[in-house]
Amino acid sequence: MRRATILVSTLAAWLAFAAPAEAQRGQVALPEGDGKDVVEIACTTCHGLGQINGSAGYDAAGWRDLLGTMVSLPDAQATRAAGYLARHFPPKPDQAPALVAGNAQIAITEWTAPTLGQRVRDPADRRLDTDSDGSVWYGNSTMGRIGRLDPGTGEIREWPSPSGPDSHPYALAVVDDIIWYNESGMRPDALVRFDPATEEFQSWPIPSGYGIVRNMWVTEDGNLLIHQSSSNRIGLVEIQRPRLTSQP
Ligand code: HEC
C-alpha cells in the first residue's frame, strides 16, 4: 500500500513537471478498479476525465496507442492504465464509424506533432492554413507556440508566441505568406502578426476580445474578418500594404 502511494505521488510530481496544466473541464468520477489510480493522476493534468467518458471507447491496444500520444508512462503503468480503460470504457457500438457505400477513394497521410499531448485541431480552415509553398501553419495552443509543417520533407518547426506558454493561439489565417492569429489566453485577445521571412512578431489588443476570438477569415481583398462569440461581434482588420509607386 505504502509502495503504491509512493509510486503514485512520484508519478504525480513527475507529470506535474512534464505536462502543462489546463482547465479541468468535464471532471467525472471513475469506476473502481485496478489502474484507476494511474488514470486519475496521469490523465487529469491537461483535461478532465470527461474526455475518457465521452470518447468512442477502445480496446486495450487502442487505449495504449491513444495514451501514448499524450503521456509517456513507464511500461507497467501504461499497461495497467490501458487495461483499466479497456475494461471500463470499451468501444461503444453506437459511435463506431459506418462505411458508406460508394467508390470514393481517399489517401490519408499522418504526421506526428512534436510534443506529447499536443493536438493540432480543426482542419476546417479555422486553426490551420497553408502558405504559397504549401507549408501548413498551425497553432500549438497547449504550449503557446505556432508551428509550420513542410509536407514535402515532414519537417516541423515551432516558434514561441510573444505572450508565452499560456497565450493559447486559436484562430489562424495566412495572408500574403504572413501568419495572423489571436492569442486567446490574453485579455483582451491579442492579434498577432508573424513574418516567417524575418521571424518577427507584432501584436495588438483586439478591442472586443474579452471572450475568445474563434474564427478568422480572409476577405477577397486580403483583409481579415474576425469573429468573437462572447461579445456577439465580428470585426474587420484592415491590413496596410506598402504602396507601390510607379517609376517615370
Ligand atoms: C499533455 C497533455 C495531455 C495529457 C497528460 C493527457 N491528454 Fe488526453 N488529450 C489531450 C488533448 C490536447 C486532447 C484534445 C482535447 C480537445 O480536443 O479538446 C486530448 C483528448 C483526449 C481524448 C479524446 C479524444 C480521443 O481521441 O478519443 C481522450 C479519450 C483522452 N484525451 C484520453 C487521455 C488519457 C486516457 C490520458 C491519460 C493516460 C490523457 N488523455 C492524458 C492532452 C492530454
List keywords for this structure.
248 residues; alpha+beta; Methylamine Dehydrogenase, Chain H; four-stranded antiparallel β-sheet; 5 helices; 11 strands; 24% strand; elongated; disordered N terminus; binds heme C
Could you walk me through the main structural features you see in this protein, from its secondary elements to its overall organization?
- The chain has 248 residues and is α+β, with helices and mostly antiparallel strands.
- The model is unreliable at 1-25 (pLDDT under 50).
- It is 21% helix and 24% strand.
- Helix 1 (2-18) packs parallel to helix 2 (36-42), helix 2 packs across helix 5 and helix 4 (60-68) packs across helix 5.
- It starts with a helix and ends in an 11-residue tail after the last strand.
- The strands form three sheets. A four-stranded antiparallel sheet has the order 1-2-3-4, with no helix packed on it.
- Heme C (HEC) binds at residues 19, 39, 42-43, 45-47, 51-52, 55, 66-67, 70-71, 81, 85, 116-117, 119, 121, 142.
Helix content: 10-25%
What distance lies between the first and last C-alpha atoms, to the nearest angstrom? 87 Å
> With helices defined by DSSP (H or I, 4 residues minimum), what is the helix count?
5
* CATH fold-level label of the largest domain: Methylamine Dehydrogenase, Chain H
N to C succession of SSEs:
HHHHHEEEEEEEEEEE
Mean pLDDT: 85
Numbering strands along the chain, what is their spatial order in the largest sheet? 1-2-3-4
How would you characterize the largest beta sheet? 4 strands, antiparallel
What multimeric state do the chains show? single chain
